[in-house]
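Side project, low priority. Logging it here so it doesn't get lost.
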Amino acid sequence: VPLRGEDWISPRQKWMQRYLPKIGAAVAGVVATVGLWYAFSPSEEHADDSHASAEDADHTDDGSAGDELPPHDIEPIATSTAPRAPEPDDPLDDVPGVSVRDVPISLPVAPVAPPVEKDDPPADADVVAVADDDPLRPQRDPLPVIDVAARLNDPIVKLDYMRTPLVDFLRVTSAMSTIPITLDIDALSEAGISAETPIFARGTNKTVAEALQLALTKRRLRYVVVDQHIVVTTAEPDVLGPLVRREVSDLVGTQAGATERLAKVIEQLIEPVSWKTQRTTTSIRVDGTALVVVQTPRMMRKIDAFLTTLRAARRDPLGAAVSPPPALLTRRASAREALSKKITLNYTAPTPLEKILSRWAESSKLTVVVDWQSLADEDVGPETLARMSATDVTVEQALMALVEPLYLAFRVVDEKTIEITTQDGLAGNPELAAYPLADLAADEAQYASIVLKLRGQFGPAVADNVEATADGGVAWYVDEPSKTLLLLAPQDSQAAVEAYLDELREAHGR
């Protein structure tokens, strides 16, 4: 019953008068917030249009050149981009605290030199002006500082690794300790140890350092601390071994000066720097038809592998060109089948790099090792955010879609192992590879054209000037008895040469 002098209202009207204004204010606030977000956020459609326009412009520039390439230019590998679509299980674009602008999605293009001021003197013809800060290189926050000594003393309650692949053991240890761990995969491969070598380590109440020591020493491995990283390499010391004698009469025959020439070729193609360093005590000399060498055990393995390659090439030159034996297979050729398989892998939202690489390895059935020490120079670590889209493309194309926007690169270690490194790291790591040319040498004019093109691309051959030092880590030599090209160069240059030779064989129906 209403009180006297007070207007009576129903409970429903009373509720509406009390709560309806609050609900209206909340709805208005949400609408205003959404409107402001759309008004001030960057337009992704516009960014995509700008990116597509840039790609069209690049395509137009590349395609407008109608002149043919000079005979000495070797075109790099061309990769195509397949249509891309996200996978259902990918992380969403609206992850809280993550912006799609954290990682660039466009491929890098050649930087443009800054304009020269009128008062500046003319630049030398052989020098190209480059800005101090590359505007195309992604700008990232510095990696966190890690107290390696303290993290090595972190406790591990229990170790239970039975036949765990080495690369997986190091990945787990790195995640627990937060210390980036790099595998010296070249040293391990030369010693016959792979990244999948099983590790045995069991125990309780160990530190991170003790766990590494326990697992690695059983495989004749060791770890060293370099800056804020751990590098795992072979346990053998990098010191000179005893004097070694190698008989090469089957390679030099009775030709005068052939043994001396072979020794000079070895100096140019097998770690040239190791023979030229000041105060070095390495040496190679001739004793009749034998080579007498003083080098480290690791270099001796490389020399023995080189001699094995020459013998395999000379045993059946034409057969080696048609179907190369294992000793003559390049690293990329050994992994060609695995890299050509098709996969689909999409991460449309920024995701930690290590997670994407783990998924890529699972999809490709390949082992991935990362040179975190080199990647630190680009401020890239395991938690660096990245994106990739690859729908029904080759394994190689999918990996390129990941590493190129990050200004990184990859190289083949063997038929089952891929290493992620930087572009500078790839260029500074020349490798020796053999390319049989006997099937192409049947046509003398074509063979001469190949040699001319190599000379224009890489300079004089070792055979032309055996006293010269390899320029920029690149040197080449054609073994005339087997018509085999031996090329010391980074893998991107190796890939260009291999593509050029494949093109010649395809053109001539071989």
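Brief comment: Residues 318 and 439 are 6 Å apart (CA to CA).
Revisit when time allows.
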